[in-house]
Amino acid sequence: MNKHVSIEPFPPWEFIKEELNERNWTQDDLADVMGCSRQHVNRLLKGITSITPKSANELAAAFGTSAELWMNLQISYELSKAKVDDDNIAKRAKIYNEYPIRDLVKRGWIEKPSDVVDLEKSLCKLLNVSDLTETPQLAVAARKSTPYDSHTGSQWLWYNYARKMAAHVSAYQFKQAKFEKGLSEITSLAAYPEGVRQVPKYLAELGVRLVILKHIPSTKIDGAALWLGSKSPVVALSLRYDRIDNFWFTLMHELVHIKYGHVAPVDEDLSGNEESDIEKQANEEAANYLIPKEKLDSFISRHGKLIYQKNVIRFANARGVHPAIVVGQLKHRKKLPPTHLNKLQAKIREHIVGYALTDGWGDSPLAK
């Protein structure tokens, strides 16, 4: 096994002295040979003057060596004297690769770190772990676009911060029967953008805490179902897409996770193709709660490829949901082109922020 042995750097001027001793030359002799002043040679021998490309060529000519030898001796010596703490730099690089530190500081989640030890402590506190090599333990079911068999450091930060926020939200006692009844009725708020204002209070009465937490760059998180305890569910939404159809589908998706007590997957980019069985179930039931499958099937069979705006609006009104929700499901089934009927879309962020505990977009209620 190779062992790293620390060797004291050998100054280049010591090599010059050895060359002089071998030839029985004095400093004056070397000055005469090089055609320079004795003072210049003296400064080289004391290390006051560094070897430059010019003096390297002069020494090479005087001693019959290469100029590269003298330049390499000088550079190697300077590098050894300027050695930094490689381990700390490598550790910081690994942390910066795994976590968006600048974004965390900007959002007030951590203070600007003074050193790598301080940085590790701040991240461990956010992740609720004793060491960054430790895998966080958190009951979470989330909607995401990255592979479902692993979570990134940024995802864990988002989940844990959402959980931290949820601890500051009040809610009634969670009862399964009451929750499932409310789950089938909450879509009555989906007809208008303003309806989302009532969602936080409605969910709190069902024992579910709602928090709005802007996603961390590169996570692509849409939402997550978390658990403060076995009877304390939480829904966290990122509002990554400020659209009413995405809001309601993601919300219902997470509520289905709560209905079944799912704690395994995480949810990013629900429009992605990779789905586990749990996610497929959550997707299907979420869509069905908003628009019963048989009703949408009937609508599609009646209109075929000729789906006009007026038909969508009429159908949405009959189902008690916003037209954009109908459009979203039709596009998911590839019954409408991606650009068709986009004017029916509506923004909801402005309606939910201020009614639910929110972090992001200038709001950081838990930041120090």
Automatic annotation (TrEMBL):
Domain of life: Bacteria
Domain HTH cro/C1-type: 16-70
Keyword DNA-binding belongs to the record: yes
SMART domains tied to this protein: HTH_XRE
InterPro entries linked: Cro/C1-type_HTH, IrrE_HExxH, Lambda_DNA-bd_dom_sf, Toxin_antidote_HigA
Single GO MF descriptor: DNA binding
Keyword DNA-binding listed: yes
Keywords for this protein: DNA-binding
Pfam family, one: Peptidase_M78
Family: Belongs to the short-chain fatty acyl-CoA assimilation regulator (ScfR) family.
Protein name in the entry: Putative HTH-type transcriptional regulator YddM
Natural source organism: Gimesia aquarii
Encoding gene per record: yddM
